[in-house]
Write a structure and sequence with these properties.
21% strand
Length: 175
């Protein structure tokens, strides 16, 4: 089976989350120029030339219509495989049994059980938010927890089959 990076998944899922539902969809072409900007001086970044923008769903949504008005695609980033303590929806699961170990390089971010109904509710809310904001696609990060043994301690981590099921099912609520 082919391994997919977050960027690959984002480009594939860009075809699934579109304004106006499933009837028609836009698709970036091979070789599309892109800009990834999750933080920093975003106002300066918006002036850069790129055909596809990967921006943070929660922290950068106010720039979506500006970018799209130039004919550019907007893919909205969020973590699908982890809980981040600084997110607006973090309080919902803060003391939950679904949280696992912190990520090795990010102490304020923990793996979560993607098999949990509570986690799926949060993810569906994030997909709804992306659709409301008008994102052309999504960039669901940290979807590889099934490959990381340390993610499972303290949480019922997914195996490979569950991880693939999670990834295949993630775009469904976006329709």
């Amino acid at each position: 089976m082919m391994m997919m990076t977050s960027a690959t998944v984002a480009l594939l899922l860009a075809a699934f989350l579109v304004q106006g539902g499933c009837g028609s969809w836009s698709k970036p072409s091979i070789g599309t120029s892109f800009q990834i900007q999750f933080a920093g001086d975003f106002a300066h970044g918006v002036r850069l030339q790129a055909d596809l923008w990967d921006i943070d769903l929660e922290n950068s949504h106010q720039y979506i219509h500006t970018i799209q008005s130039r004919g550019d695609y907007v893919v909205c980033y969020f973590s699908a495989g982890t809980w981040e303590e600084y997110r607006s929806d973090a309080e919902h699961l803060k003391h939950s049994h679904v949280l696992g170990n912190p990520l090795p390089d990010w102490d304020d971010e923990k793996y979560w059980d993607v098999n949990s109904a509570e986690v799926r509710e949060v993810l569906i809310a994030r997909l709804d938010q992306a659709q409301r904001y008008g994102c052309n696609g999504i960039d669901p990060d940290n979807t590889d927890a099934y490959q990381i043994p340390t993610s499972r301690s303290g949480v019922a981590g997914p195996d490979k089959a569950a991880g693939e099921h999670f990834l295949k099912g993630l775009p469904r609520p976006a329709h």
